[in-house]
Design brief:
Layout (H helix, E strand, L loop, with lengths): L5 E9 L15 H17 L4 E4 L8 H9 L16 E10 L3 E7 L8 H7 L24 H9 L8 E5 L15 H6 L4 E5 L2 H4 L5 H6 L12 E5 L15 E5 L4 H9 L1 H4 E2 L8 E8 L8 E4 L4 E6 L5 H11 L16 H12 L6 E8 L2 E8 L5 E5 L5 E3 L1 H7 L3 E3 L11 H9 L3 H54 L6 H46 L11 H33 L4 H26 L4 H31 L2 H33 L4 E10 L1 H10 L7 H12 L4 H17 L12 H5 L4 H8 L4 H8 L4 E11 L2 E4 L5 H12 L7 E4 L10 H11 L5 E4 L3 H5 L5 E9 L2 E11 L4 H10 L3 H10 L4
Parallel strand pairs: 1-2, 2-3, 6-7, 12-22, 12-23, 17-21, 21-22
Antiparallel strand pairs: 1-8, 3-4, 4-5, 8-9, 10-11, 10-13, 13-14, 14-15, 15-16, 18-19, 19-20, 23-24
Helix pairs in contact: 1-2, 10-11, 14-18, 14-19, 15-16, 15-17, 15-18, 16-17, 20-25, 22-25
């Protein structure tokens, strides 16, 4: 666990068997008290309590026993539990004061036992003998007439100052509560910043009620004094019936009274009355094996808000850059000046000079919805390795890391560059839905691959169809020629003339018989292939897991699938054997095919005999024989081509369907972006108006089109005009589809066929002259056209900035501060991936920082935030759960930095560093106290 602040489920009013109103068996002996304490700790764990305050009336006797039991907690393996995982036990007292009201006095969790008697003495409480089974009736402390008196009494002891907090009973209508008629003056003057309820906020201080307005500082009669509330159970039963029944979640770094006071003062951020929602996607740790600038680094981040602070050149930005580099988060910023001075270029230089030079590597641990992922990247090679859960490290690509573990990150001044860089604007819109877009792009790629694969079949089908048409004409010509030559054979008997007349029918029968025989052969091949596939599926059946609730049902399901496969095999194998037998010599099919073959042989012999007796017609017979051979070969080829065409199916229809599928997927992707734009507009509070312009991203398509036409002689100005015209179309995507269709027609038209504007109306309308289209014709290839057709046309987001009600200007026309404020408001309203910004204050107008602070309180409930900052208000009043303080390795030497201390702002050492390092740090703490009550 990191050293920052975390939520703990608490019950701050818990009594023990010494309580006068205890229900159930008490505990008098040492053995009984130790046994009870152990039982109590176990019950706390059973009820998911992380911390309790033991608050008997005017008595500390049971606190040491429960502390000892908590310290002896063991984990599931029986080993001693880590200190950070043990039950936190705050010593406390329930006081009955002369105000009159009751209050809880809560001490630091590590407050020494030996000082308990001194506290009772300070309060003039008669200590009850330790061996007593039960406490006597409570004696009201009438000498304490106000909370100021109580604080004054306690603060007279230097060893107690700052180590306690007081929570009055503020239950509406409850016994001993401060919230009674006539108590408003006591409420107004008390130094307490929180109070406790016997029950829930919903029941005892319902939001919107009069009592709730008092607690919220909205009632002038009660001093407009705002306090935090703690739900408590007032548990006092051996059956633990009420233990943890009413609890609150409180955030601290160290379990001290000061941390509880800070929680009261920062209640929006540090107290919850229902289980708080926390980010489920977050960076858990960054480990740098070695760096010439930072040395070894091992940082554990808070899953909510981590602030990295330090002087300039101490390593704040370097830490963020290492994380982004390891997670392959490449900034979408182009070079900005001479050489590569972009954020990406600077990062590459940083890695080369500080990591590669010393053989360093960076490891980032990323929690993704409860699953730990570890990314390791080596400075020298840049190789990426990924480990998921308990698996092994595997080499991966940047794309995989980006898609699986996304972060939303901005370098210094990068946030204010969004408006002037289209790719940054697109990244701002797409980052929160990156995984949805990547899933949709995966579908697009799949459809494109299927289209590309089918297009090969389509080209083959077109070629085969063309060949069939050509061979069909050839076959008809040869048949007609043969028929004419046979008609010239005169002087033959009627029988011979009949043989010649029957010859076309004989050849047709021969072709039919050949088709029958091929069908039989294909059946054999198909059945063999089916059995091979059945065997493959059978071998691939998943193994049933060895244990689990579904094991029995899974086994039954596997057996059912296996049985179905066996039944198919049992059916097909005999059929295959029967077919092979039938086709073998003497088989049914073989015999059936042999009969017409024999008859054809007889007819062939008769035909040859007729030709032999017609020697007078030798020349015609030679020609006839040649034609018949050619016609037979043509017929065989036609049969083969028709079989190929049948095997190809209907690729033309598939092509049309896949093109429609691509268009549908493009539309769905556009809808995702449009929805995100609407969300961004809403999250900005109306400061922004984000919209998607569909089909405007033709840059890649234009580049591909120009490459396709290279060397054609078409002037560049013609392409400029074409794409300018395309961009001006009402429905540019639909127009682009028509252009692609017309370009394909240019590709498919016979070279001898002339072009007309009727064939390419869109290209012609957009200014591409027929002469240019003719030039293009000579350059277009199938592969080039297909590559062009599959270039995705992206949508372009646009932003407007609201200046007045319903009045907007171009976002780029707003000031850098206005732009950054609007964008940061959106970023801090979003849910999901971690948000990392290096020095966001540099993009903001100074007067907006305090407003950003309030956004931070809510944002860190939804997403992890990591800021590197010089602005103390973002750190202190933003209530960072973890502060990482960077410093120079040697004072004044900016050649190296290191992490000096980590912790939360309720830790004195961290507060001291903030005051020392950050200009305005002391003023930020004063503002925290005065303006926010922090």
């Amino acid at each position: 666990m990191n050293s920052g602040a975390h939520f703990y489920r608490t019950d701050f009013q818990v009594h023990t068997p010494r309580d006068a109103n205890w229900s159930g068996a008490r505990a008098s002996t040492e053995e009984e008290r130790h046994a009870y304490a152990k039982e109590f700790v176990a019950e706390c764990r059973e009820r998911s309590l992380n911390a309790v305050a033991i608050t008997d009336h005017h008595d500390f006797a049971f606190v040491p026993y429960i502390r000892q039991a908590a310290a002896a907690e063991s984990d599931v393996s029986g080993s001693p539990g880590a200190p950070s995982e043990r039950l936190v036990v705050f010593p406390g007292l329930e006081l009955t004061l002369g105000i009159p009201c009751q209050a809880l006095l809560i001490l630091d969790a590590n407050f020494p036992d030996e000082k308990f008697s001194a506290i009772l003495e300070a309060l003039a409480i008669q200590e009850t003998a330790g061996e007593a089974e039960a406490l006597p009736p409570v004696t009201r402390l009438d000498h304490i007439q106000s909370f100021e008196d109580l604080y004054t009494t306690l603060d007279r002891r230097p060893w107690l100052q700052g180590r306690y907090t007081v929570l009055p009973n503020v239950t509406d209508g409850g016994y001993g509560t401060l919230m009674r008629s006539g108590m408003h003056a006591k409420y107004k003057s008390m130094p307490c910043v929180g109070g406790y309820l016997d029950g829930t906020v919903e029941a005892k201080a319902k939001p919107g009620s009069g009592i709730s307005r008092k607690f919220g500082g909205q009632d002038a009669n009660w001093g407009n004094k705002r306090i935090a509330l703690f739900q408590t159970s007032d548990s006092r039963s051996r059956t633990f019936t009420d233990l943890g029944k009413y609890s609150s979640w409180v955030k601290w770094a160290e379990p001290t009274a000061e941390a509880l006071r800070q929680a009261c003062l920062a209640q929006e951020s540090r107290i919850a009355h229902t289980q708080p929602a926390l980010p489920t996607i977050y960076i858990e740790r960054v480990h740098v094996s070695n760096s010439s600038f930072l040395g070894p680094v091992d940082l554990v981040f808070n899953r909510q808000y981590t602030a990295i602070i330090g002087g300039r050149g101490t390593g704040k930005s370097t830490i963020l850059d290492y994380i982004r580099w390891c997670l392959a988060d490449n900034p979408a910023v182009a070079p900005t000046g001479d050489g590569d001075t972009s954020a990406d270029g600077r990062r590459r230089e940083l890695v080369a000079s500080t990591l590669a030079a010393v053989g360093g590597q960076v490891e980032v641990t990323f929690i993704l919805n409860g699953t730990r992922h570890v990314v390791r990247r080596t400075g020298e090679s840049g190789q990426l390795l990924l480990k998921v859960g308990d698996g092994e490290f595997t080499a991966v690509t940047e794309d995989l890391v980006q898609s699986l573990l996304p972060v939303h990150a901005y370098s210094q001044k990068q946030l204010s560059s969004v408006a002037v860089r289209p790719n940054e604007l697109t990244r701002f819109i797409t980052a929160p839905i990156l995984q949805d877009l990547q899933a949709k792009d995966g579908q697009v790629n799949d459809a494109a691959n299927r289209l590309r694969q089918n297009y090969g079949s389509l080209q083959r089908a077109r070629s085969v169809s063309h060949d069939i048409e050509r061979l069909g004409l050839t076959g008809r010509s040869l048949s007609d020629q043969a028929e004419h030559l046979r008609s010239l054979l005169t002087g033959l008997s009627a029988e011979d003339q009949q043989v010649l007349a029957d010859r076309p029918a004989v050849e047709t029968s021969r072709e039919t018989l050949t088709a029958f025989r091929r069908t039989g052969e294909q059946l054999t091949t198909a059945m063999a292939a089916l059995l091979d596939e059945v065997d493959r599926l059978s071998a691939g059946l998943s193994q049933v897991p060895p244990a689990g609730a579904l094991t029995q049902n899974l086994e039954a399901a596997r057996d059912a699938v296996s049985g179905t496969i066996d039944a198919i095999r049992t059916t097909v194998q005999p059929a295959q054997q029967a077919l092979e037998s039938s086709l073998s010599a003497g088989g049914t099919l073989a015999s059936a095919l042999s009969a017409p073959e024999a008859e054809l042989t007889t007819l062939d012999a008769q035909y040859e005999d007729v030709k032999a007796r017609s020697a007078i017609h030798a020349q015609q017979l030679d020609q006839l024989s040649s034609i018949e051979e050619r016609r037979k070969a043509t017929a065989d080829q036609l049969v083969s081509l028709r079989e190929q065409l049948a095997t190809l199916g209907n690729p033309e229809q598939v092509h049309a369907m896949l093109r429609q599928e691509l268009l549908r997927l493009y539309a769905e992707r556009s809808a995702l972006l449009a929805q995100q734009c609407a969300t961004v507009t809403e999250l900005s509070g109306g400061l922004l108006k984000a919209e998607v312009v569909r089909g405007r991203g033709f840059q890649q398509a234009e580049e591909r089109f120009r490459a396709l036409a290279a060397g054609s002689g078409v002037r560049a100005a013609k392409f400029d005009a074409l794409f300018l015209g395309l961009a001006a179309e009402t429905a540019p995507l639909e127009t682009w589809e028509r252009i692609l269709t017309e370009l394909e027609q240019l590709l498919l038209l016979d070279e001898s066929t002339g072009l007309t504007t009727e064939q390419t109306p869109t290209l012609s309308r957009l200014g591409l002259a027929m002469s240019d289209q003719e030039r293009l014709r000579t350059k277009i290839t199938v592969d080039a056209w297909l590559d062009l057709a599959l270039v995705p046309v992206r949508d372009e987001p646009t932003f407007s900035y609201r200046t007045n009600e319903a009045q907007y200007i171009r976002f780029a026309s707003a000031s850098a501060g206005q732009q950054a404020t609007a964008l940061l408001r959106v970023l801090l309203s979003q849910t999901g991936m971690p948000l990392m910004i290096d020095q966001p204050e540099e993009d903001l107008d100074s007067q907006i920082v305090q407003e950003v602070v309030t956004w931070l309180w809510e944002s860190k409930k939804r997403r992890q935030i990591i800021f590197a900052s010089h602005n103390p208000n973002l750190v202190v009043n933003g209530d960072a759960e973890l502060v990482v303080v960077c410093n120079y390795r040697r004072a004044g030497d900016q050649s190296g930095g290191h992490v000096e201390i980590t912790g939360a702002i309720d830790v004195k050492g961290v507060r001291d560093e903030i005051t020392r390092v950050m200009e305005g740090g002391e003023q930020a703490f004063k503002l925290r106290r005065d303006k926010y009550g922090f």
